[in-house]
Amino acid sequence: MGTYMSDHAMLKPGAMHLANGGYLAINARDVLMSPQVWEGLKRVIRNREVLLEDPGEHTGMFIPQGLRPQLIPLDVKVIIIGDEPIYRTLTSVNNEDFGDLFKVKAEFDHRVELTDDNLDAYCSFICGTCEDEGLLGFEATGAAKVIEYAARLVAGQKKLSTRFGLIKDLLIEANYWAR
């Protein structure tokens, strides 16, 4: 009826709360699109505690004071995923605390060697994706065509692409045409 109301049943956990005690993987572009999110993420990691906040507080809107839960101790490992230009931006002189908060840099190649183990892993990925997405199964010749496509993505006869999002999209499209 146009009034502000608050009740403990309205409190909802955020990504940090849900990841507490484990890992949280975040896309760097998504976080950097909103300066409040980036600053809040750094504050939470630095202080090792998280607070339930009203999203309207960051927009400058006046929000009547509702429930204010206690700070929650935080034990989470945050993984930021991004490309090299984003990493260079984050490690620039203007952002010195990035190196203090995120000490390890891991790089993953977008391709792997074409070996029997990797072929088995690719076939497992195809089967798992078909099962998870409710797709029709692939025969051996169909799986071979998918693997051939993966080799073409990296323009090599001895390598396979690890861009599994593209492979998954191909499997979904193949399922559409098969049906």
Please outline the helices and strands.
Elements lengths: L14 H5 L3 E5 H5 L2 H13 L1 E2 L21 E2 L3 E5 L2 H7 L6 H5 L9 E3 L2 H18 L6 H14 L5 E3 L2 H15 L1
Parallel strand pairs: 1-4
Antiparallel strand pairs: 2-3, 5-6
- Count of domain modules: 2
Number of helices: 8
- Poorly predicted runs are none
Shape: extended
Number of β-strand runs: 6
Q: Give the integer mean of the pLDDT values.
A: 84
Query: By helix and strand content, what is the structural category?
Result: mainly alpha
- Rg over alpha carbons: 22 Å
Binned, the helix content reads 40-55%
How much strand content do the residues show?
Answer: 5-15%
Helix/strand order: HEHHEEEHHEHHEH
Largest sheet: 2 strands, parallel
Distance between the termini: 50 Å
User: How are strands sequenced across the largest beta sheet?
Assistant: 1-4
Quick tags:
179 residues, mainly alpha, 2 domains, two-stranded antiparallel ribbon, 11% strand, extended
Task: Explain what this protein looks like in three dimensions.
There is one protein chain. The longest helix is centred in the C-terminal third of the chain and has 18 residues. The strands form 3 sheets. Strands 1-4 form a two-stranded parallel sheet. Strands 2-3 form a two-stranded antiparallel sheet. A two-stranded antiparallel sheet has the order 5-6. The model has no long low-confidence stretch (mean pLDDT 84). It has 2 domains: 94 residues, no CATH class; 68 residues. It is extended, with a radius of gyration of 22 Å. The chain is mainly α and 179 residues long. Helices cover 46% and strands 11% of the residues.
